[in-house]
Specification:
Layout lengths: L4 H13 L12 H12 L7 E4 L3 E3 L4 E2 L2 E5 L3 E3 L2 E2 L3 E4 L3 E3 L4 E2 L3 E4 L3 E3 L4 E2 L3 E4 L12 H5 L16 E2 L2 E2 L6 E7 L3 E8 L10 E10 L4 E13 L5 E13 L8 H11 L7 E13 L4 E14 L24 E13 L10 E11 L9 E15 L2 E14 L39 E11 L14 E13 L23 E10 L5 E7 L8 E5 L5
Parallel strand pairs: 1-4, 2-5, 3-6, 4-7, 5-8, 6-9, 7-10, 8-11, 9-12, 10-13
Antiparallel strand pairs: 14-15, 16-17, 17-18, 18-19, 19-20, 20-21, 21-22, 22-23, 23-24, 24-25, 25-26, 26-27, 27-28, 28-29, 29-30, 30-31
């Protein structure tokens, strides 16, 4: 039997680490990649080749008469190169003093060229998969973006490039539906990385909730300094007044809108939050970012304003829960690492985030609490058509945790065999607030099997991805298990019987955009299976 949370964590990540591969995660060997790239981009050159497998610098006074090949490392050119440059799985930085009499090619990397440098040839950024026919790659690689999904010279981007929000040049139309706002129609300007000379970035949203009968807005302005990408330092400020939720990590607004509109199921709880935010962030690399900021937020409870749904019209939505109202002034910070190859449907890489927030009377806040959350995710291939995904999330705090900051678990994306938010704090019968749950532990393991592993020849069957999953976790009050009030107390008592768990199978499309989960809780033999239909991965 597992006696404490430390044992659980060790077993969870040792298990996932057994299957870890090199960061490239390619089915084709590195030697074959290099051979193919050399044939295509260097060819039958009569010049001498200089090959390196570490970060390499051509000094300002150096002159290289030949071709430079760098594998799985970066190249910086300050001097002169009379030949072609080929960098595989690394970036190329060409400084002002550089002169290159040849082509510059980056495979699964980026080319950064300063203005006064001279390149008498072509510059090519491409992906490893473009070197080979499609059948030589597994489907995950073909469907996902490579780790060089960011392209310096293109204008439109989706989602994020590692820790940097790329956004889009044009506005997004927002169309949502929920039990508080009814139909919500608006437009947003996503935050973007900005251009070399566009150091200020304006972003925000404006929209109207028709049943709520209230405008929502957010406007933000950021200014970056130093390096645009790798070592970007940023200062920003935003002001806002909108209907907010803390449930986006469980279900996206778009998926929740479809559930509310068609199925009479609203999985998000809402409150009004208005105020302003000031922050500073520093990119230590494109994968690692630190951030610190100050928020001045006002919280207001919101009522349910509609019970309409296209189907199942005889039912009513549950009431929207109230929150503890007041002015919350807080200081927050986070350290964030992200090397996933795709944000929505990752198939390899790591995600780690440590965040903290403090609010107390010393900064004139109506609330007094400290909260810390650690989340770790890894996506590792165990074979050509197999992958294991693991998530561990731990939350803790002290002080009087307001219900809108308390931890909640159960149902979709968390403990899939249990009711939605089955483990949460709330209010008692006298409408006196209990403090929110201040301890949480959640673990999820998914074993993914690509349909190619079976190859039945039946079109529909061969398009289904099979996922076996196991979930465990719980949320609770620390004062229920200890009389101390420290952020590290309240975990040492944990045994396996203190955690809720379930297992199940999911059937998913290859791209992961649709799936059916069938889950069974393990604490009783009486409860039936829980079946859920999703339009996104749980993590």
């Amino acid at each position: 039997m597992l006696k404490n949370v430390g044992t659980i964590i060790i077993i969870l990540f040792v298990f996932s680490g057994l299957f870890a591969q090199k960061s490239e995660d390619y089915d084709i060997s590195a030697k074959k990649i290099e051979k193919k790239a050399y044939e295509k981009y260097i060819g039958k050159s009569d010049k001498t080749d200089y090959r390196y497998e570490k970060n390499t610098v051509v000094g300002i006074d150096e002159k290289i008469d030949g071709n430079i090949i760098v594998v799985d490392a970066d190249l910086t050119v300050k001097g002169q190169v009379d030949g072609d440059i080929l960098v595989i799985l690394g970036k190329v930085k060409i400084e002002n003093s550089a002169v290159i009499n040849g082509n510059v090619t980056s495979i699964d990397g980026n080319i950064y060229q300063e203005e006064k440098s001279l390149i008498n040839g072509n510059q090519i950024e491409t992906k490893v998969k473009n070197l080979f026919p499609r059948e030589e790659w597994d489907d995950d690689f073909d469907e996902d973006e490579s780790r060089s999904g960011f392209r310096r010279y293109t204008n439109r981007y989706d989602d994020n490039y590692s820790t940097l929000p790329l956004g889009k040049k044009e506005s997004d139309i927002l169309l949502r539906y929920n039990r508080v706002q009814g139909f919500f129609l608006g437009a947003s300007i996503p935050k973007s990385i900005g251009g070399k000379y566009n150091k200020f970035t304006l972003h925000g949203l404006l929209g109207y909730g028709f049943q709520e009968k209230r405008w929502n807005y957010e406007i933000g302005l950021d200014r970056w300094f130093f390096d645009q990408r790798d070592y970007r330092f940023e200062l920003g400020v935003s002001a806002y007044d909108f209907t907010d939720t803390r449930d986006n990590w469980m279900i996206t607004p778009d998926e929740n809108s479809l559930a509310a509109f068609f199925l009479h199921k609203d999985f998000q709880d809402f409150y009004r939050r208005y105020g302003f935010d000031i922050h500073a962030s520093q990119n230590i690399s494109i994968f690692l970012q630190g951030k610190i900021g100050y928020r001045n937020d006002n919280y207001k409870s919101l009522e349910k304003n509609t019970d309409w749904s296209l189907f199942r019209g005889g039912r009513n939505f549950t009431e929207n829960p109230i929150v503890e109202e007041g002015n919350m002034r807080s200081i927050y910070g986070e350290v964030y690492y992200d090397s996933r190859n795709n944000k929505k449907n990752p198939s390899r890489g790591w995600y780690a985030k440590l965040s903290g927030e403090t609010s107390n009377s010393q900064i004139n806040s109506d609330f007094s609490f400290n909260q810390y959350i650690l989340e770790l995710r890894t996506y590792q291939k165990t074979g050509r058509y197999e992958r294991i995904d693991v998530r561990l999330k731990i939350g803790t705090g002290d002080g009087e945790m307001p219900v809108q900051k308390g931890f909640e678990l159960g149902g979709i994306s968390t403990l899939r065999g249990f009711g939605f938010k089955q483990f949460q704090s709330g209010i008692d019968t006298l409408a006196v607030f209990q403090s929110g749950y201040d301890r949480m532990l959640l673990g999820n393991i998914e074993y993914n099997i690509d349909p190619k592993i079976f190859s039945t020849g039946i079109p529909l069957i061969d398009e289904i991805q099979y996922i076996f999953f196991f979930d465990f976790g719980n949320a609770w009050h620390s004062y229920d298990v200890t009389d101390k009030d420290k952020i590290y107390d309240g975990f040492s008592h944990l045994q396996w019987n203190d955690l809720k768990s379930d297992f199940g199978i999911a059937f998913s499309t290859r791209d992961g955009n649709m799936r059916i989960n069938i889950a069974k809780r393990l604490d009783t033999a009486e409860k039936p299976f829980t079946i859920t239909y999703r339009l996104s991965k749980p993590f």
